[in-house]
Sequence to fold (275 residues):
Amino acid sequence: MIEFRSVSKEFPDGTVAVEDFSLVIPSRKTTVLVGSSGSGKTTLLRMINRMVDPTSGAIEIDGESILDRDPVQLRRSIGYVMQNSGLLPHFKVIDNVATVPVLSGVPRRVAREQALELLDTVGLTRDLADRYPSQLSGGQQQRVGVARGLAANPNILLMDEPFGAVDPIVRAELQQETIRLQRDLDKTVVFVTHDIDEAFLLGDQVVILETGARVAQIGSPSEITENPANEFVASFIGVERGKRALSIKKTPRGSVVVDSEGRTQGVLVDGTAAP
Fold:
């Protein structure tokens, strides 16, 4: 479990990125921090592994303050996946994945064997192991980034808008891969995005943020959709537009469910929507 208690962060230039933020992130679930640019979501994520230290307040992992942990050792114990993969361009794929275990003392041969297994885990073929990042597609690079994040077998995996730089088709594939990995590996995942549809797809717990990391609402996707806390949340999630503003349309072959643009989203079967 990760817990933020009255956490604030003010940068040297006077910018207050986070103001009095409190949250409990449950173990072995996916918590998504979602908000527009400037909402403090990435700052919150980077505080967990001490890439950014809070100005005030407390952050604990399983009851232990992160400030009592060596920053380097803490970072090596937590998986981190970023946008554009962040791979080392002059390292082969296998060595990118094996980097953190080797730095943590795992023999290189063992780390490379484990790296090959991780390529299997994230849906990549082993023949990619000896390629360089520039020889991979964007989607393949992101999968390698996920494998690297999992290389030290961390309990916690941080994902900072990891799919923002790939095309929509690849992004949808990677989202489904993330769901599968979480089901199989049972990690505590903290995921940052500005995309509410991605947040609702991936999150067990979704945290909608306003400027300064002020919490607008916390809940499951169903709870938030069914009962938005205020007008800001209703507007942010789009309850009156797109595929969340649904209505029933009669057709010669029965009733269908359409979105606000009139696009069919599913059919009604015994009174329930079936996509």
